[in-house]
Amino acid sequence: MKNYIKYYIQMLSSSKFIRKGKCLRCGACCRNILLYIEDEPIKTQEQFESVKEWDKHYCSFYISGRSETGALLFTCREIGDDNLCKVYHFRGLGCRNYPKVNSKFLINGGKPLDGCGYYFEADKPFKCYLKNS
Predict the structure, then answer these.
(1) For 4-49, what is each residue's pLDDT tens digit?
(2) DSSP collapsed to 3 states, the chain
(3) Does 7 fall in a domain?
(4) Residue 37 structural domain
(5) How far is it, in rounded angstroms, from Cα 130 to Cα 128?
(6) Number of structural domains in the chain
(7) 85 in a domain, yes or no?
């Protein structure tokens, strides 16, 4: 429940960026996932086992590699060979809102995975923000 409350607070106070585009059904986002504990990527098997205890949605993932920064990479157990979700109508909030608008991530040069049909734009031109200051 705590995660859902935190999620909705973040949604209400979200950034000035807008997600645009559409899913191209390549499946890359379901096979190269970084999972986080309190804004830090999961880096150990022990952390992953711990987070699965308090949020059962994490049981849908398995460790599939490690990023260049040392964070664990995960793959969803529900992705089919056709790159479609086998439990699409019952997927979690993280999946429903991928890719999530995250100002900190975008300002630091983050972007959706290569080949993803989604992209981000500012909600209005930069010069409009200057007029308000």
Answers:
(1) 666 555 555 545 788 899 989 999 889 989 888 887 899 999 999 9
(2) CHHHHHHHHHHHCCCCEEEEECCCCCCHHHHCECCEECCEECCCHHHHHHHHHHCHHHHHEEEEEECCCCCEEEEECCECCCCCECCHHHCCHHHHCCCCCCHHHHHCCCCCCCCCCEEEEECCCHHHHHHCC
(3) no
(4) 26-110
(5) 5
(6) 1
(7) yes
Instruction: Find out whether 103 and 15 touch, Cβ atoms under 8 Å.
Output: yes
User: Going by C-beta distance under 8 Å and a sequence separation of 6 or more, which residues neighbour residue 83?
Assistant: 25, 26, 27, 30
Phi/psi of residue 24, nearest 5 degrees? -100, 5
Reported pTM: 0.70
Q: Do the domain assignments include residue 5?
A: no
pLDDT in tens, 80-133: 999 999 999 998 888 888 887 777 777 777 778 888 898 888 877 666 656 655
